[in-house]
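ok so I'm stuck.
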Amino acid sequence: MKAGRAEFLRALIRKLDAAGVAWCCLRNHHEIFEDTRSDVDLMVLPEDIPLFETFLEEACAETGTHLTQEASYLNFSRTYLTPSGQWVRIDYESEIRWRIFPVLQARRVLLRRGQRDGGWGRSEEHTSELQSHSDLVC
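replied:
not stuck anymore, here's the structure
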């Protein structure tokens, strides 16, 4: 069986957890492995971004997944193609901003994250803050 989205993400998460890298799925954490229609939004501490990127490369090598596109905006975005033909886009950031204004820092989110469905999700406290952020952007 060829590796797909779930295998690639599980390889990445295993590496993050083994190294003690704090991370959080910002939305749709309950279907991160199954929902191939959605990207994956992750938050990590600024000082962990280089290690996070190394683990992305290692997860690619482990699963035979290929990086197809890379972009940097206010966050970082990478798109991958798995051996099973599934596309996986991972957006990762260390803060959430509205225009030039910081809205939510990674350290604040990661200190209050909660274990959910085999992964880390944001706390309910931050749900309303992120919703307010979404309302500002839309």
